[in-house]
Amino acid sequence: MRPASRRKPVASTAPPRRGRGRPGADAPDLRPRLLDAALACYGSHGIAAASLRDIARHAGVTPALLHYYFGDRAQLLDAVVAERLLPAIAPLRESIQRADGGAAALVAAFIDGIAEVIARNPWLPALWVREVVSEGGGLRDLLTERIAPPIAQLMAGRFALAQARGELNPDLDPRLLMVSLIGLTMFPAAGAPIWRRLFDAQELGMDDVRRHARVLLERGLELEDRHGNA
């Protein structure tokens, strides 16, 4: 008696099952969209309070998909810093390094540079106030250790040289002049919703803040001299 012939297994034509949260091969890259959603949630809720679920909801995806792209919350924050925050600040340093001339040229380069950075990245001022200025902010160490030192030290050093040449008021502290520049640019940008409502000035934008800061710093001493108050 002949043994029954064994049937060869038929190869399955069904596509392999995709892991949970894993996008299909033809799916668009959602990384930029997810980074933007993370920035929006960081600005509105704060880094510590923004959960992966909140960010996924804002982006219109599942938490599993967010986890597929970035892993955990710490890795997502690292990606936001590397791919959004640091590239946003880089043009400011380049603008300062290109500035020729004395203290006035350096002031103009900083004000114009930071105005351009804010115009391109409107999320930055609110995030800066919440996560850098506020006590316990999630980006304070990053600012003081990686972002601010090259810019602040470069500008303070050039202000000190201008002061030594007699081009800058000797009563000014070159380090605090840098602080004043931040106060005349980042704070007005972050507080725009408040002062626009206060003064019914919806038409004022960052370009107006930029011009105001330049006039205040570049012509302030000239007005004092004119009135004999210097």
Q: Characteristics of this structure?
A:
Tetracycline Repressor, domain 2, single chain, mainly alpha, 230 residues, Arc Repressor Mutant, subunit A, TetR family transcriptional regulator, Tet_transcr_reg_TetR-rel_C_sf, HTH-type_TetR-like_transc_reg, 11 helices
Q: Return the structural class.
A: mainly alpha
The total tally of domains equals 2
**CATH C-level of the largest domain:** Mainly Alpha
Strand element count: 0
Write a compact overview of the structure shown.
The chain is mainly alpha-helical and 230 residues long. It contains 11 helices and no strands.
How would you describe the overall organization of this protein?
This protein has 230 residues and is mainly alpha-helical. The chain folds into two domains: 28-71, Homeodomain-like (Arc Repressor Mutant, subunit A, Orthogonal Bundle), CATH 1.10.10.60; 86-226, Tetracycline Repressor, domain 2, CATH 1.10.357. It has helices at residues 31-45, 52-59, 63-70, 73-98, 103-120, 124-133, 140-164, 174-183, 186-190, 192-198, 206-226. It has eleven helices and no strands. The N and C termini lie far apart (119 Å).
Please render the helix and strand layout as text.
Layout: H1 31-45, H2 52-59, H3 63-70, H4 73-98, H5 103-120, H6 124-133, H7 140-164, H8 174-183, H9 186-190, H10 192-198, H11 206-226
Helix pairs in contact: 1-2, 1-4, 1-6, 2-3, 4-5, 4-7, 5-11, 7-8
